[in-house]
Amino acid sequence: MKPPSSLVHYFKLLVLLALARLTMHVPDEDVLSSLGLLRLDGHFSFHDVSAMARDFGNQCSFLPAAVLHPGSVSDIATTVRHVFSLGEGSPLTVAARGHGHSLMGQSQAAQGIVVRMESLRGPRLQVNDGGVSPPSVDAPGGELWINVLRETLKHGLAPKSWTDYLHLTVGGTLSNAGVSGQAFRHGPQVSNVNQLEIVTGRGDVVTCSPDDNADLFYAALGGLGQFGIITRARIALEPAPKMVRWIRVLYSDFESFTEDQEMLIMAENSFDYVEGFVIINRTGVLNNWRASFKPQDPVEASHFQSDGRVLYCLELTKNFNSDDTDTMEQEVTVLLSRLRFIQSTLFHTDVTYLEFLDRVHTSELKLRAQGLWEVPHPWLNLLIPRSSIRRFAKEVFGKILKDSNNGPILLYPVNRSKWDNRTSVVIPDEEIFYLVGFLSSAPSLSGYGSIAHSMNLNKQIVEFCEEAGIGMKQYLAPYTTQQQWKAHFGARWETFERRKHRYDPLAILAPGQRIFPKASLPLPL
Questions:
Q1: Degrees (nearest 5) of the Cα angle 487, 492, 497?
Q2: What domains appear along the chain, each with residue ranges and CATH number?
Q3: pLDDT tens for each residue of 491-500
Q4: Is it the case that residue 9 has pLDDT exceeding 70?
């Protein structure tokens, strides 16, 4: 029997990867020994470096020549400055690795140096409660967002904008964008930073902000690590609520689902968090909710059948404190009365602010216990203009994915006006656009649920977008050629390239993004 074309394509990539590894330029022993002579507060590892050749995507693995465990920002600067001094003839590159949550080897450096940012021991989190200036927190680039939250909550404060998963580093998410259900109100995380400390590709340590070294500041935010390694960030804070009313409802009509979301993100008085999910071929959806949520009407909820239907889940929160519970209840009732969801599917629960923001970690622990966390994750994240979202949904959910169920599918709108267009992040041109995330897992080696199957579906989705003129942009894009990146940045490529030549002229930093190759780099799977 002839194997499916997607599987043939997958194994062709395996062969290409093997050939690339055979031809990879390995730094000579003199270069590596020179690293060991650098005066550092931390240290280098030259053996047992395999952990730095893995990431969350679990689709490619490139061994570094060395791993830097920095004891200070100076260690990072010294290392980059040394690599820069080797000149353009040296193939040595440097990649900053946070919590290793990249999808296609973006935080890896094949036969280069990986900087383990979580090793950075420097000034701990410093919270400025306010007073003369608005409240903020200074956080090391290698600090996890969950630790930032825990520390700021001690002061009754918290960052304004989040990612869905908090066990990521500050520098990692700020190098991309950092998006979650609060983005419609506060913008992504990159729109909520007051100051950065950066080690450039020349090894210079630069403090930058909107007022000082502004070009580097905006370049680094969403800059995919191309212009410098973020070693510290000053993040804007706001008063933190104690509690959250967490709500889920279902829709069967896509148009009502999206129109209600758009109404909520444009309203002056709305919920504090708005996200949506697409549910395909799931059974017992409401029964699964009962473990954490309670139905508004248990009898009606028990009669609801989800089998074999495409449904749309709207997830909402309203923040409150114990002394304003009644006010919260009234506001939620008014807001829900404006929505057109299936009334029998209204579920809610009250949790602490910390519990809600750290909700994905709870799922992570369950998946780890089942051996389903460290599997390939062929995720696809798209930004779709509002004008194209219905056409996109009809083709993707109605045809391409009609028989699939490989993982959660996110779909929710955000406002372009909340995204600072001076950063390096690339988004669609329309005021409202949708984040659509296909968060697939591939635990099987072949057939349905395999990486080849998921990659084939991703390929079909991307090809449809391109052929139909959807106007999408990829988020956490897995491009492998500069031509693809030029198309991604469009008119902004010239600025991006100019900044690269200014701050990292030898293309030392973040080689795993494959934007500005310094040497022959292998293709990811």
A1: 90
A2: 126-239 (3.30.465.10), 243-474 (3.40.462.10)
A3: 999 999 999 9
A4: no
Q: What pLDDT score does 130 carry?
A: 74
> Is-contact 432 387, C-beta < 8 A?
no
Pick from 446, 468, 501, 516: nearest CA to 224: 516
Q: Where are the alpha helices (DSSP H) in 159-293?
A: 170-174, 183-186, 214-220, 254-266, 285-289
Query: Average pLDDT of the chain?
Result: 91
Biggest alpha carbon–alpha carbon distance for the chain: 74
Closest alpha carbon to 270 in 446, 472, 412? 412
Q: What percent of the chain has pLDDT over 70?
A: 92
Q: Evaluate whether 106 touches 171 at the Cβ level (below 8 Å).
A: no
Predicted local confidence at residue 122, as pLDDT? 59
What is the β-pairing status of strands 310-320 and 243-251? antiparallel
> Distance between CA 121 and CA 229 in Å, rounded?
15
Catalytic residues: 101, 164, 275
Distance CA 464, CA 469 (A): 8
CA 237 – CA 121 distance, rounded (Å): 23
Band of residue 287 on the pLDDT scale cut at 50, 70, 90? confident
Helix ranges (H only) for 338-489 are 353-357, 359-369, 389-395, 451-468, 482-489
Output the pTM of the full model: 0.92
Query: Which of these, 69, 113, 106, lies nearest to 90 by C-alpha position?
Result: 113
Q: Give the chain's radius of gyration (CA, Å).
A: 23
